[in-house]
Design a protein that fits this description.
Layout (H helix, E strand, L loop, with lengths): L6 H9 L5 H47 L5 E3 L1 E5 L3 E8 L2 E5 L4 E5 L6 E2 L4 E6 L4 H5 L11 H17 L7 H23 L1 H6 L6 E5 L4 E4 L1 E2 L17 H5 L4 E2 L4 E3 L4 E6 L4 E7 L1 H10 L1 E6 L5 E10 L5 E7 L11 E7 L3 E7 L4 E9 L4 E2 L5 E8 L5 E7 L2 E4 L3 E4 L9 E3 L6 E3 L3 E9 L6 E4 L2 E4 L3 E4 L12 E3 L14
Helix pairs in contact: 4-5
Amino acid sequence: MASGTDPGAISLFEVIPLPDSRSHSSTNHSNIRTVKESTAYHLPQFGVFIMLALFIYVVYNMLSYRNANLVAGYEVTTGSLSADQVYTGIALRQESIAQSEYPGYVNYYAREGDRIPVGGLAYTVDESGRIMEYMNTETGSGNVLNSEDILKLRPEVSSFAAGFDEKNFSDIYDFRDTFISTVQKMASGYILKDISQIAASDLTGSIHQCYAAETGILVFSTDGYENADFESVTAEDLTPEAVSSYEKKCFESNMLVVQGDPVYKVCTDENWSLVIGTTPEEAERLTELQYIQVRFIKNQDVLWASVTSRKDAEDHAMVKLSFTNSMVTFCSDRYLRVELITESVKGLKVPNSSIVEADFFLVPKEYITVGLTGDRGVLRQTYTEDGQPSSEFITAVPYSETNKDYYLDQSTLRVGDVLIMPDSTETCTLTRQAGLIGVYNINKGYADFREVNILYRNDEYSIVEPNTLYGLSEYDHIVLDASTISPDELIFS
């Protein structure tokens, strides 16, 4: 030990050894590894928890959305509905049936729709049946139609095509029969050119020329309605079943008849009418108009008609539309589809599915007061715990009114509630109720009833009066289907 050295100092260094750098490094690495392992162990658990929470939230919202009452909305806009309606009517004319004077094969020399004068050649009757055979020989001139004849046929085809409805496909068979008959009559006109040759032949004794007894428009069919009038037509004649089962007998050239068989008819008066069936209210409305425009679906022609109405034996409303022209255009038609043109009604256009009827309490106006928050409502009689009479304010917004009463919602009031008149001791008991026609307004996110005044309606939409005190305004949003929601229900859209 060196001299001058403090033994205590030497002893201190011996007691407290210097730290080993390798040991220190090892310890630090061990601590760092422990922290990393701890972090690696806790962070994944936290992430899983977050993901699980998000998954539960998404599933909850999906289930809530699935179970929620999803409501489709409709934006109210100003529009109009035409009061026009389509009807099927039965045509009535002054018709006279001509009967064959001889037995044999009939041939015609005029087209359906042509006017025949008194004493004009209407048809011939060939007792031998050899006239067509004769005309097909080299002696005859044949029956091929020329270009002029074809041009005459085009309007008939165009008119039928314009008014054809696939729902009434059977109409095409009637048109086919009529068209063939028309072609045959046009072809038979060529026989008339060779009448001198026929007269000089050995056939002349078997051919009879028959002349019209009265003037009129020629029609080559009968259907049993020739003697019908406005008083005899019933609602059964206008049913879809009656229309679909309607048949007429068409007369064609070279048709075999016996003496007395019908061979044609003439419509003797330009005045004619169409009878339709409708509701008593509609019949009254049309009658008040006196004159209306009628559009014919067949060719889109528009005619003015005078209106009269009556009720049949079973109290069905029948309306007669009387015309003074264009009889020849529809002379071969018994049933016609027409559209009645009246003024269109303008207002707020609302789907019929949005309209609902709801019941409300009728409360005298004297019982309505204003609460501390400014809301309108009523004072309902209550009792304290010790049995003393008291009152409570119940918010009750009016949904409509009359001169004496307000219509109040039934959600916060009950039948039998006793209401107290403000600043008075008079009371009334809730018993009176009445219905209102309206829709559910959803501007504020819940179903709020709004009264509507319907001006006109058809099968799909109604026109309602705009800007009424308790009604709708343009661009309001309403429930499209009122049956899917209840009053004051929150909306999920």
